[in-house]
């Protein structure tokens, strides 16, 4: 059964095949969980969203139309809706389309990134993670899908329900915002690496 | 390539995405001669490395095992529940419809019985006359057809009379007065009462009275008479007065008349 594609597994699952559900879940849960985690920054929300997505698939899986896209994109689209709903409910997120927050400062990373300890890889990753998390939702979801989950532009456009050109421009804008948020860290990193090089030269 | 064009491709260049070889070479060549664009490309590459590191760090993360267990459990429960729910969904509405149908039939039967009963009591004198008249013509009993209503009623009270022997309820029929016009008898139902004309309520025109409706008997404080410009006997000020309210088909009170 493992050689069946997602659509075939979905059809089997809707016909009552438990093994098909298990296989489809194991194949797709990681991406959904990580997407929800990147979007929310909360493991509990990511866990809930993953569960809700597959519960939705069990109940409403017949609404999936293979001519409109893949099962993976469909599931990520459902996950996106659940994440945004949860975040709105918890007042962690401004409504989509609100551009007023585009230039909102990233409160968390800037203060913590100045110490030299930030140069360690783990903390750099944490800084990037926080910077991504601080992006407005419409930019964050593009970064998460295109950069962190390596989803193609076409599939991202399908998931978010917009044109590929919109995805490109949002990604470009999101990267610019990330650079602004991460600039203190990168400048420190550059300065320290320069110092190290100089020391070697003098040594 | 100029800086503006470089800016449009720098993200793709830093991400190592597929792009035209010529464009890529031009962009790299431009970054070699333009310090600002070279710095921009370095920033973008650093950001790309940071994002790739984050993606690699998160790659092994998965939903806890418990989620799968819960889902499979829910799936099994759903499979078991489905036939039960479909059976319920089939049976519940039908039983509901049956109950509603029985209730509706009962309501119709009761209303028909009440309607016929009330009509019979009101129309009996006239029906008696109407039924009497055709019978009286062939029968050689002219004295019966010439009788007044009162006489008829009195005849009806007698058990020996063969006109409508079973349907007659003498006590209800007796108050019919021959002096009063027939229309008033029908409208008032109880002929001993004296009633005012219907007074349209302030927000209704007189024309709206023609739309029909239902008359509801109510009791009002005698002071209500004054509200409609009618004289009030101050000695009986505390007593109540009967009134008929004409309620329209939309449920609003259209007119009122006072009854004594």
Task: Give a quick summary of the entry.
The complex is a heterodimer of chains A (203) and B (260). By secondary structure, chain A is mainly alpha-helical.
Structural write-up:
The complex is a heterodimer of chains A (203) and B (260). Chain A is an all-alpha fold and 203 residues long. Chain A has helices spanning 6-14, 18-40, 43-60, 71-89, 107-112, 121-133, 137-148, 153-160, 164-202. Chain B has 260 residues and is of the alpha+beta class. A four-stranded antiparallel beta sheet of chain B has the order 1-4-3-2. In chain B, strand 3 (240-247) and strand 4 (253-259) form a beta hairpin.
Task: Provide the gyration radius of chain A in Å.
Answer: 20 Å
Order of helices and strands of chain B: HHHHHHHHEEHEE
Helix content of chain A: over 70%
Number of helices of chain B: 9
- Largest interface (C-beta under 8 Å): A-B, 41 and 29 residues
Helical amount among residues of chain B, as a percent range? 55-70%
Biggest β-sheet strands, sense, barrel of chain B: 4 strands, antiparallel
Based on Cα principal axes, name the global outline of chain B. Answer: elongated
| Number of DSSP-assigned strands of chain A | 0
Mean pLDDT of chain A: 79
Class by alpha and beta content of chain A? mainly alpha
CA distance, first residue to last residue of chain B:
105 Å
């Amino acid at each position: 059964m493992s050689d069946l594609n997602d659509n075939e597994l979905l059809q089997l699952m809707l016909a009552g095949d438990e093994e098909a559900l298990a296989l489809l879940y194991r194949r797709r849960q990681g991406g959904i969980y990580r997407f929800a985690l990147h979007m929310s920054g909360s493991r509990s929300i990511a866990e809930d969203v993953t569960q809700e997505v597959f519960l939705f698939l069990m109940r409403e899986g017949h609404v999936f139309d293979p001519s409109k896209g893949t099962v993976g994109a469909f599931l990520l689209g459902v996950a996106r809706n659940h994440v945004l709903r949860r975040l709105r409910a918890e007042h962690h997120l401004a409504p989509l389309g609100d551009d007023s927050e585009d230039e909102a400062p990233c409160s968390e990373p800037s203060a913590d990134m100045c110490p030299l300890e930030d140069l360690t890889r783990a903390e750099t990753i944490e800084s990037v993670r926080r910077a991504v998390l601080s992006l407005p939702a419409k930019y964050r979801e593009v970064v998460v899908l295109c950069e962190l989950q390596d989803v193609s532009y076409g599939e991202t456009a399908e998931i978010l329900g917009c044109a590929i050109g919109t995805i490109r421009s949002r990604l470009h804008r999101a990267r610019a915002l990330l650079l602004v948020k991460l600039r203190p860290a990168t400048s420190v990193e550059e300065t320290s690496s320069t110092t190290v090089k100089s020391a070697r030269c003098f040594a | 390539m100029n800086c503006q064009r470089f800016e449009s491709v720098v993200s793709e260049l830093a991400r190592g995405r597929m792009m035209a070889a010529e464009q890529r070479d031009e962009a790299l060549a431009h970054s070699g001669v333009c310090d600002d664009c070279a710095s921009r490309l370095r920033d973008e590459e650093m950001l790309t490395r940071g994002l790739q590191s984050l993606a690699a760090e998160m790659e092994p993360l998965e939903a806890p095992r418990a989620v799968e267990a819960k889902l499979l459990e829910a799936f099994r429960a759903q499979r078991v529940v489905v036939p039960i729910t479909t059976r319920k969904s089939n049976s519940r509405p039908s039983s509901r419809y049956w109950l509603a149908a029985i209730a509706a039939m009962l309501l119709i039967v009761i209303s028909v019985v009440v309607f016929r009963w009330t009509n019979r009591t009101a129309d009996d004198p006239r029906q008696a006359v109407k039924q009497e008249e055709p019978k009286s013509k062939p029968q050689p009993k002219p004295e019966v057809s010439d009788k007044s209503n009162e006489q008829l009623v009195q005849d009806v009270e007698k058990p020996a009379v063969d006109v409508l022997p079973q349907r007659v309820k003498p006590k209800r029929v007796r108050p019919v007065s021959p002096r009063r016009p027939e229309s008033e008898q029908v409208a008032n139902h109880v002929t001993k009462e004296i009633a005012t004309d219907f007074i349209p309520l302030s927000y209704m025109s007189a024309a709206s009275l023609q739309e029909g409706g239902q008359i509801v008997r109510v009791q009002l404080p005698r002071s209500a008479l004054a509200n409609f410009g009618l004289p009030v006997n101050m000695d009986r000020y505390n007593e109540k007065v009967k009134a008929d309210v004409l309620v329209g088909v939309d449920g609003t009170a259209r007119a009122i008349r006072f009854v004594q």
